[in-house]
Design goal:
Strand order of the largest sheet: 3-2-1-4-5-6-7
Number of helices: 7
Shape: globular
Low-confidence stretches: none
CATH superfamily: NAD(P)-binding Rossmann-like Domain
Number of strands: 7
Order of helices and strands: EHEHEHEHEHEHHE
Mean pLDDT: 91
Strand content: 15-25%
Largest sheet: 7 strands, parallel
Radius of gyration: 17 Å
């Protein structure tokens, strides 16, 4: 069985930085995303820097169960087993309560909660029990406290946090490790979609955040990190 790390939303921002660090550590990586062109551009960029490790791509909308099942079947067909799963994909929404619609709720929850659950469940299902698997759920500090004009976004992230903690309890005593990550605001394209008017010049660099996450997850001896909150210095 070939071991690989999987990064959802790996074609840009924090996911791209995480992928680069995993490749630098000698691990092969599969990045998942909705846009094939973005995935291909990311793969070309990363493979130039990756040394002996290799990055591959797969188009997958994690909120679509059919796509997720196809991803699982792809891994099984190619005898690939996930060693690390970084649930990084997500969608932001910053709007007041009067803007709430069923469509907006569905879009945000699909990416931030439903997709995380579907992909995690599929990877758990197809990973042999004897193999160790670390699942890293990258959420947001908005999963820890409520924020003005983020009611739907916070609700999706609080749901992801609840799922993460319950899953950790369910998998206690197995070879499955669950790491919860709560980063603050970063300078990524996330805000071009979620809140284009937000001033983000003082926000964290995704490369710096990625280093914190990857170092904590990979550098495991007798101690295991379970929860990571990352904020910029005041």
């Amino acid at each position: 069985m070939k071991k690989i790390s999987i990064v959802s939303g790996g074609s840009g921002g924090l996911g791209l930085s995480i992928t680069g660090l995993l490749l630098g550590s000698g691990r092969d990586v599969l990045i998942l995303g909705r846009d094939s062109e973005k995935l291909n551009r990311a793969a070309k960029k990363l493979n130039r820097l990756s040394g002996k490790a290799h990055v591959s791509t797969l188009v997958c909308n994690i909120g679509d169960e059919t796509d997720v099942k196809k991803t699982g079947q792809f891994l099984k067909d190619h005898k690939i087993v996930a060693e690390y799963l970084f649930n990084n994909a997500g969608r932001g929404l910053f709007a007041d309560y009067s803007s709430t619609t069923s469509e907006l709720i569905d879009k945000v929850f699909e990416a931030n909660l439903k997709g995380l659950i579907l992909l995690t469940s599929e990877i758990l299902r197809i990973t042999p029990e004897k193999e160790e698997l670390t699942i890293v759920n990258i959420m947001s500090t908005s999963a820890l406290l409520g924020r003005d004009k983020e009611s739907i976004y916070c609700a999706s992230k609080w749901g992801a946090r609840g799922y993460t903690e319950a899953l950790r309890a369910e998998l206690k005593g197995t070879k499955r490790n669950i790491v919860a990550v709560y980063p603050g605001g970063m300078k990524t394209d996330f805000y071009k979609v979620a809140d284009k008017d937000r001033e983000i010049s003082a926000f964290m660099d995704p490369g710096d955040v990625a280093k914190k996450i990857v170092n904590a997850v990979l550098n495991v001896d007798k101690l295991v990190v379970t929860d990571i909150t990352i904020n910029r210095k005041k």
